[in-house]
Design a protein that fits this description.
The complex is a heterodimer of chains A (349) and B (371). Chain A is an alpha+beta fold and 349 residues long. Chain A has four domains: 4-66, MutS, DNA mismatch repair protein, domain I (3-Layer(aba) Sandwich); 70-160, 2-Layer Sandwich (Alpha-Beta Plaits); 169-218, Orthogonal Bundle (DNA polymerase, domain 1), CATH 1.10.150.20; 234-348, Dna Ligase, domain 1 (2-Layer Sandwich), CATH 3.30.1490. Helix content of chain A is 39%, strand content 21%. In chain A, the strands form four sheets. Chain A has a four-stranded antiparallel beta sheet with strand order 8-11-9-10. In chain A, strand 1 and strand 2 form a beta hairpin. In chain A, helix 4 (68-85) runs antiparallel to helix 5 and helix 12 runs antiparallel to helix 13 (300-312). Chain B has 371 residues and is an alpha+beta fold. Chain B has helices at 7-17, 71-80, 130-138, 200-209, 263-274, 324-333, and strands spanning 2-6, 32-38, 41-47, 51-63, 65-70, 85-91, 94-99, 102-106, 125-128, 155-160, 164-170, 174-181, 194-199, 217-221, 225-230, 233-238, 257-262, 283-289, 292-299, 303-310, 318-323, 338-343, 350-354, 361-366. In chain B, a hairpin with a 3-residue loop joins strand 19 (292-299) and strand 20. In chain B, helix 3 (130-138) crosses helix 4 (200-209) and helix 5 (263-274) runs antiparallel to helix 6. The longest helix of chain B is centred in the C-terminal third of the chain and has 12 residues, at 263-274. Chain B is elongated. The chains are: A alpha+beta (349), B alpha+beta (371). The A-B interface holds A 253, 256-257, 260, 267-268, 270, 298, 300-301, 304-305, 333, 336-337, 339-348 and B 23-26, 145, 147-149, 170-175, 245-246, 249-250, 280-283, 321, 323, 347, 349, 365, 367-371.
Chain lengths: 349, 371
């Protein structure tokens, strides 16, 4: 979906249409941008930047508080629509999904026809535009979907894959963020074609175990199936504080509360986590993370204790802290996890 | 405050407090036990705001007063002491805990910070048989996950009727229901029922409370709290708000295939066969036929296993799978020689019961697995 939250707000409030809109927290409260309308993006407003900066970039910006309940219900209806066409729907977020339409309920032979019909249905029923990418695999489909936003429809037919890859920068690769891209650039690798010719060893020096994966992608190969249920890899929360924290006890309280949230998340899904990660952003925006791995747990007290110890390994005791985050990684099914095949007692809800 | 108490008496009480105190460390005072010296008693109180325990033991009080000490550290210290008198004394510099030649000074937190808890004795009381409570708790508590987002499933339902009482627990996949007779009660008449949901932690602590000593348990339902008084100890529990699911409705009435097993043989067979079950699902299959039940398992990783049990069964052939742990949870808490399994078909609720149980009625409902 295109600029999902912002588009929903513009749809529901005509006075916002055609104007730069950002959905997110208040600039005074150090809110961040959750979504920016295309009008706002023209000013350089992007999601995840501080709202105060967004406002400096675009003084005319209309700021709307998010209504996640609304977005969730719209998203639910759109996903239901997807699932009526194919059972193979892999959600990436509220507004993004992979669909394997090889077999589809409409009997369409071409993926592009499915995409076209879905786009029309969503526009009709929800008044929202989506951008679709149609390609032989997930990696290419994802790139294609971002090719021509908003309201785009990009098809990469198998015979066009090679010419498409020729023009791509390394950042297009799945898993290449700013850090990896800088490491690659240091070795003169900035395009997919250079990934192919760099040689495996050079790649390994730059990106370690990711090398083989990047090499595959650079050849347009991605065998990952569309999976309806994805095992989550991590979970956590973070919070930017309206005012920098200076008091270590207050920070500890926040860290414990976030540990509690992580524990509840694990509880609800029946996972245990081996790794606890603490993220600290100091007042000057320098951001550090500290991780600790131990026996898997979902216990709030254990996660909290580990996160607090991690806090002691930062400079939080002598620097102001702007943001704190606690997350859990290296998840595995714990006891009490939903077991495949286990049916439930027929309590009438 | 200043008092002297026997080590063993103090240790026995402190042990019970270990499960009560807050372990999450979010509110420091909740890790402490409140100690009051009054008359010839040392009174103790600890809580995590969900469950609280009040208790006391005999002490020589030199100076009445109150203070708080970390429950865990105090317990560790007292446990490590020889069998002697323990002196707890507050002075200008803090709290001294001393015995024999041992001397220590412990961190304390202000007594004023300790939350106040309701007192029992404002509502009518009922006596529960200690043994009946013990049975009910032991046979149900494991069926609570304690981690369900449907928070009303994070507890067990206590149902009081004129002549009997029940405790029910379920995690949505299996359900355990124990009913015991009640005597001499005037609090409930006719077909009336009084229901209350107890948190899982309350159940666990109640289980510990009724495990030792003897004598009835005095039960009292206050405005927002429940009180279970056992001798010198009172367990105070919050109630869980919410609607417990209509458990009667999932207990099947029409299961027409009944099989009786020797409990020990069934337990051993399920344990052995489960060793080669799928690690995640822990599924074991009951392959039922005339005169025998074969318990089987298979896992792509490890292989497969089967064990045959001779039974009196003349009905038709049938296969049904269960989570081995659910079956063992039941078998581990019943003590009758024979247990029964009654079934309808492969997908409906199965019921396990101890046969000829004394003094209680136990119904254990399990949903099968679809493999």
């Amino acid at each position: 979906m295109d600029a999902f939250y912002a588009s929903v707000e513009q749809r529901d409030d005509p006075s916002l249409r055609g104007r730069p809109v950002a959905v997110g927290g208040s600039p005074e409260q150090r809110g961040v941008v959750a979504a920016a309308s295309y009008e706002a993006r023209a000013f350089g407003v992007r999601s995840a930047i501080p709202m105060s900066r967004a406002l400096r970039l675009c003084p005319a910006l209309a700021i709307v508080r998010p209504s996640f309940e609304k977005y969730r219900s719209i998203s639910g209806r759109i996903f239901d629509l997807y699932r009526s066409v194919t059972p193979l729907v892999e959600p990436l977020s509220l507004d993004e999904a992979y669909l394997d339409v090889t077999d589809n309920a409409w009997g369409e032979r071409l993926g592009v026809s499915v995409a076209r019909r879905l786009k029309a249905l969503i526009r009709e029923s929800e008044g929202l535009t989506v951008s679709a990418g149609v390609a032989p695999n997930k990696f290419l489909a994802k790139i294609a979907s971002g090719w021509d936003k908003p309201d785009g429809l990009t098809v990469i037919a198998p015979e066009r894959v090679e010419s498409f890859l020729q023009g791509l920068p390394v950042e297009a690769l799945w898993g290449v963020g700013p850090v990896t891209s800088r490491r690659l650039a240091e070795r003169g690798i900035t395009t997919l074609m250079q990934v192919r010719t760099a040689g495996r060893e050079a790649l390994q020096q730059a990106v370690g175990s990711q090398a083989d994966w990047l090499l595959q992608l650079a050849h347009g190969i991605d065998e990952r199936p569309v999976t309806t249920h994805r095992e989550p890899k991590s979970a956590g929360t973070e919070r930017t504080f309206p005012r920098d924290l200076e008091d270590l006890d207050t920070m500890r309280t926040h860290v414990s509360a976030m540990a509690e949230t992580a524990s509840q998340w694990l509880d609800a899904r029946g996972y245990v986590a081996r790794t606890v990660t603490l993220k600290v952003r100091y007042g000057d925006f320098e951001t550090v993370t500290r991780s600790h791995s131990d026996a898997p747990t979902r216990d709030a007290a254990a996660i909290s204790a580990r996160a607090r110890l991690l806090l002691d390994r930062t400079e939080a005791h002598r620097r102001r802290v702007r943001l704190l985050g606690v997350s859990v990684h290296n998840l595995q099914a714990g006891t009490g996890a939903p077991v495949p095949g286990q049916s439930s007692l027929p309590f009438l809800q | 405050m200043e008092l002297v108490v026997r080590k063993n008496e103090l240790l026995r009480e402190l042990q019970l407090f270990q499960g009560i105190v807050e372990r999450k460390n979010t509110i420091p005072i909740l890790a402490n036990v409140l100690i009051e010296a009054k008359g010839d008693q040392m009174r103790m109180l600890a809580t995590d705001l969900e469950v609280a325990l009040r208790s006391h033991c005999a002490a020589s009080v030199a100076k009445p007063g109150a203070l708080t000490l970390p429950a865990k550290k105090l317990y560790e210290i007292v446990r490590a002491l020889p069998d002697t008198d323990v002196r707890i004394e507050e002075d200008k510099n803090g709290v001294k805990v001393a015995a024999d030649r041992f001397d220590s000074r412990m961190q304390t937190l202000p007594r004023e910070d300790f939350p106040s808890l309701p007192e029992s004795g404002t509502s009518p009381r009922t006596a529960f048989s200690r043994e009946a409570l013990r049975q009910m708790v032991a046979k149900t508590h494991f069926a609570i996950t304690g981690e369900d987002t449907r928070f009303f499933l994070n507890g067990a339902l206590l149902v009081l009727r004129a002549t009997e009482m029940s405790l029910v627990a379920t995690d949505g996949h299996r359900l355990a229901l124990v009913t015991v007779p009640r005597e001499g009660t005037a609090d409930i008449t006719g077909d009336d029922e009084v229901k209350v949901i107890l948190p899982k932690k309350t159940l666990l602590e109640l289980g510990k409370l009724v495990a030792e000593d003897d004598g009835d348990i005095q039960y009292e339902r206050g405005e927002n709290h429940l009180f279970f008084e056992a001798g010198s100890r009172v367990l105070i529990s919050r109630m869980i708000d919410g609607q417990f699911p209509a458990y009667e409705r999932v207990i099947p009435k029409g299961n027409d295939k009944d099989i009786e097993f020797d409990r020990e043989r069934l337990t051993a067979a399920v344990k052995r066969v489960a060793l080669l079950s799928n690690e995640r699902s822990r599924a074991v299959k009951f392959e039922i036929d005339k005169g025998k039940v074969e318990v089987t398992s298979s896992s792509s990783e490890f292989g497969e296993a089967r064990e045959q049990l001779p039974v009196d069964y003349t009905g038709g052939e049938m296969k049904i799978s269960f989570n081995a742990q659910y079956v063992l949870d039941f078998l581990n808490v019943v003590e009758t020689d024979i247990v029964s399994l009654s079934l309808k078909d492969e997908v409906s609720q199965a019921v396990m019961k101890p046969v000829a149980a004394q003094g209680y009625d136990y119904t254990y409902v399990i949903m099968p697995m679809r493999i």
